Structure formats: C-alpha cells, structure tokens
Write the structure tokens for this entry.
Amino acid sequence: MAKVKGDIVIDIEKCKGCGVCIPACPNDVIALSKNVNGKGYNYAETVNEECIGCANCAIVCPDGVITVYRKKIE
Amino acid sequence: MAEITKEDIRKPENLIYKKTELLTDKALSYCPGCGHGTAHRIVMEVLEEMDIQDKTIGIAPVGCSVLAYEFMNIDMQQAAHGRAPALATAVKRLNPDKFVFTYQGDGDLAAIGTAETIHACNRGENIVIIFINNGIYGMTGGQMAPTTLPGMKSSTSPYGRDVHMMGNPLKMTELVAQLPGTIYVTRQAVHTPANVRKTKKAIRKAFENQKLNKGLSFVEIVSNCNSGWKMNPVQANEWMVENMFPFYPLGDIKVND
Amino acid sequence: MKGNEAFAEAAIRAGADGYFGYPITPQSEVMEYLMAEKPHERTGMVVLQAESEVAAINMVYGGAACGKRVLTSSSSPGISLKQEGISYIAGAELPCVILNVVRGGPGLGTIQPSQSDYFQSTKGGGHGDYRMIVLAPSSVQEMADFARLGFDLAFKYRNPVLVLSDGAIGQMMEKVELDEQRPRFTEEEIIKNTPWATTGKTKDRERNIITSLDLDSAKQELHNHALQAKYKLMQEQETRFEMISCEDADYLIVAYGTSARISQKAVDLLRAEGIKVGLLRPITLYPFPTEIISKLADQVKGILTVEMSAGQMIEDVRLAVGCRVKVEHFGRMGGIIPSPTEVVEAMQTKIIGG
C-alpha cells in the first residue's frame, strides 16, 4: 500500500501566531512556539513527524505562510 | 525502507501548496487570524488558475481591506466608501473583455454603499462582488455594522444591539438574491479547510459566470473579527459558527444556470 | 441647438468613451440627447443613467482610472452630491469632464439659472487641497468647444475639468459649428498614452494602482506638493480670458458666462452715453486671470463685477486689484438674470458716481 509522507515549511517571520492552522491539522502536527518572531508573535511550528501533506493548515492560513510538500513512499 | 529525510520531501516535485504569485510579498495588514487574508488568497488563486491576471481589474473598498491593492498583484482601483460597485459598473461597461470584481466589507457594502450595491445587482452588471461580512466595522475600531447581530456588543452598541433602538441587521445577500440581475448568490465561510475549498469553488463559479457574460455573481463570506469581537482567533471562529451562522446560514441562495 | 445638446453632441465627437449621469433640471437634455443619439452605435460610447449623482461620479472615477474619456453632467444640487467623487478623482489624479449647468440655491433653490456655485467650483468644493480647471462658457458654441477642450486639458494634466455653465446657456438655442468626429482611444493608445491606467497587469510591468490614499504622512505631503506644482503649471499655461473694449477703458466690468453676455450689452449702452467701459470675461475661472485684471486696475478708475450671485468672483477680483481702485459687485439671485440697464445703473451708482 502506498503511503505518503508530508512536510510543511512555515515562514515564521510572517506568521502571526493566530493558531487557526492548529485545529485544521488532522495529526496535531502544529503548535505555537514558546519563542517569538521579530514581530513578537508566538509563531506556529511543527511538533511531530506525522504530517501527511494534506495542506489543510496552508489552506486556512490567513497569511499564506505555509508551504506544503508530499512524497509518496512505495 | 530507507529513512525519509525532510530534505527528500521538500523538493519542488513534491510541492503541494504554496502561496500564489498573485499575492505580493508584503505582509498582510490584517489582525492575526482574520479571514480577509484567506479570502484574498483564494480570490487570487482563482485568477491564477483561470490565467486572467492580465485581464482583471479589482476594486478595493474603504474599511479593513482598503489596502487590498497592496496585497493583490493585479491592477486595482481604490473606491470611495461604498462606491465600489459604481466603479466596477463603469470599468466593466467600458472594458467588456476584462474581468472586474469588487471586494467589500459589510459597512462598505451594506450601509453606505447600499444604493450602489442594489442597483449594480439589479442592473445585472456582469461583475463579481465579494462581500466579507464580519458583523462589525473593524477598521474604525469595532463599531456596530448594518450586519451586527441582535444583542451583539460593539463599541457603539456596548450593551448589545437593541433592535428596537438601533434597528435590525440587514441580510444583504438574501436581498440581492431577489433581484433579477443577480445570477449567482451564495454565502460561504473560510474558517475550515472544507469551507475554504467550497468558497474557492464559489468564487471560481462567479468568475466563470462573468466569462460567460451571465450577469452579477455575489459571494458573501461570513468572517471573523477577533479584534472587534475581543476574542482570540480560534475562539472567534467558534463564536462565528455558533452565532453568525444561525443568522447568516451558509450555502447557495440563488443559482441560475 | 440648445447649449446642453451642443455639449452632448460635442462630447460624442470629442471621442468620449462613457457618460454617466442622473436627471436634474436644467441639464437633463444632455443625457436625453445622448440616449436618443445611440452613441453606442455611432462610436461605441457607453451612456448609462446611474442611480444617483454619487454613483454617476464614481462611475466616472472607474472609467477614468481605465484611461477612458469619461464625463458626467448635473446641476447644482447634484454637483454638491458629486463632491466626494470629485475630491477622490482629484486626489487620484484622474482625467474627466464634469458639466455643471448651475441653478439657484441654496438647497433645492430654483430651477432657474444662477452663478452661485463659483466658490464651490473654484475653491475646492470637496475636501482637501485640490483644484479643477474651470471653464465658463458664455455661448452655445463654447458649450460645444469646451467639451473637447475639457477632455484635452483633463488628459494633459491628469485632472478633472469642470465646465461651469448655467441654466440660461444650457437652455438657450444658438447656431453652433461642431468639430468633426474624433475617434475614441484605441486599447494601444490607452496603454501608450496613459501607462498608469488599470488595463490589466501584464507580465512586463508592475501592477497599476489608482488610489487617493497614502497613510504615510511624508508621502502624502509629497503627493500634495506634486498636486500644487501641477496647479501652478495650470496657472501659468491655461489662464484664458476675453477682453472687449478694454484698450481705452476708464471703467471695467468683470463678468463670465451669462453675466458676460448681459454686461457686453451694458458696455455698449454706457459707451453710447460717452462712458468708456470695457469688459473682461474670464474663460477659465480657475486658473483665474489675476494678472490681466491687476494690469487693468492700473488703467481704470473702478471695477464692477456682475454675477448672478451674492458676489463670489468679486473676492478673486479684489485679490487681484488690492486697494488700488474701487471694486463693487452687482448681481441678482434666486434665478433672476439681471438686465443690461440694471448693470448700467449699477455702474453709474456704485462705481462712477459712488
């Protein structure tokens, strides 16, 4: 059975830490960092390796800061 | 099975989703979690997918999205408060081969611009109107809007909207659906991935209608205003689902195919 | 032709792309004429009756922002409603022509002719530091001529041009010579001549934005400086006036539009009595012919301004003259046109014998 493995890249300097991506993720991959970016926002970051590249987070991100990749694994 | 590294996954051929080139690199001026950003993005994605950047003229309103032209990488005009449909009317009539849309908030479209909205809809101008309804005047600091819910607090209805004193919220979308000039009238939202996908489909349909010279398409997006509502973004979305959606139910209101 | 009709026909022939209006007396003939002429068949020109004057002027904004030749017309109360849009058009530096066939005010006033919108026309009208070129026709011929001239000046300066007529000129019938049909701009001409216009962002250029907004105060001040420099250039290059019997004049009348016609007769009557009176007729009310009036002030003993108002232009005449000679106003209000004998009498009592 073909499996997929995904990954996201978050532009943390443009992230405003709104957290809208967090409930959109089916695998609880994202959480807000304890650290802040240049604007003082607790930015979103990945906290596990369960990403499947569904792009839900990127689709709801108001600031378009998430880039999504997905690779099929045979 | 060999271990897959992040570098293996993050390759151009594996790219699934990336912010559209039709948005500029400028950081959006909206508050964290505001639906405007998502709405901007999917409108631009539709233009990109239809490959009509060079044929599109957008009209920005007055309100939070007054600076939409800073973010949308297309030719745009900034209108006086509420007048966007009048601008769009002339732009389209003088340039029938161009795609023309307005992007307006609820104060702009449903209060000061009521006449321009109703008449552009009633004339059946062959344009798209994107209407962001968050039930409040965000830009000026959270005052009561024509769409503020009964009982809802705002800076000019600090004890909640008393409909006997302040009048009723206006369901503009239901209203324009009554007019013969509108071809497609729908109400959507952008708070979940499924809703974003639906809204994007609706916007695509609206622009396809324009391509076919069918008349005016009106897409309302019920959105949040976490600053104005004084909630965090996730709470605001939950509040929107519980309070806004019962009054402003999602779905197509008029589809003339 | 009626003045209003001559203006409408001349606008078509000037290559107008769009007219957006709303009915109001005494200028409704403009849109009636355009609708009857079917300019969409003649030249492809769009004519649309809007839901209000407010919508009409904002349609003009939208059309002008696309590099099109667009115009609107109205009368005083309607022009008041258009002030918001005019301010935005001036701020965004868009070319357009606006016709005001003035009627008496304030408020709903009267439908009879007046010149009481001088301040509104020349001193701003809407909010912000802006100016429009204001052309004041005094004949049906000039109603026609100024439609085309208005477009040419509007595009030369990227600025709104106001044709300030009145109910008498708009309604009066005279012979008029019309220009040949000029073609409308082609898409290629628009892209070449008005590269700022919103025509759709192609890959080879940055996006075009039409706005009057800049939240950065330093930039907004620079923008205002640029506007003022443009207005100064207009003053240097576009001041227009007509001088009648001024060479040997001992006294001067300053009047525009309908008042200038009346005053011309008054000049004849006064000269028949042996009093050497001249007439200076400003054709542009902005820029105002300050320099020539200042020069004439060294020659004459007194100046009478004749306006169908309580005296508005007189302020600009006094600014030009200073305290060198007496400047007095004569006018009628409420839609009444003064008679030449009234002007003669005013000259005799207020200036010569005063």
Q: What stands out?
A: The domain at 241-352 of chain C is CATH 3.40.50.920 (Rossmann fold). Residues 217-238 of chain C form the longest helix (22 residues). Chain C touches chain B at residues 17-18, 20, 46, 48, 50-52, 54-56, 58-63, 65-66, 68, 70, 84-85, 88, 92, 198-203, 207-213 (CB under 8 Å).
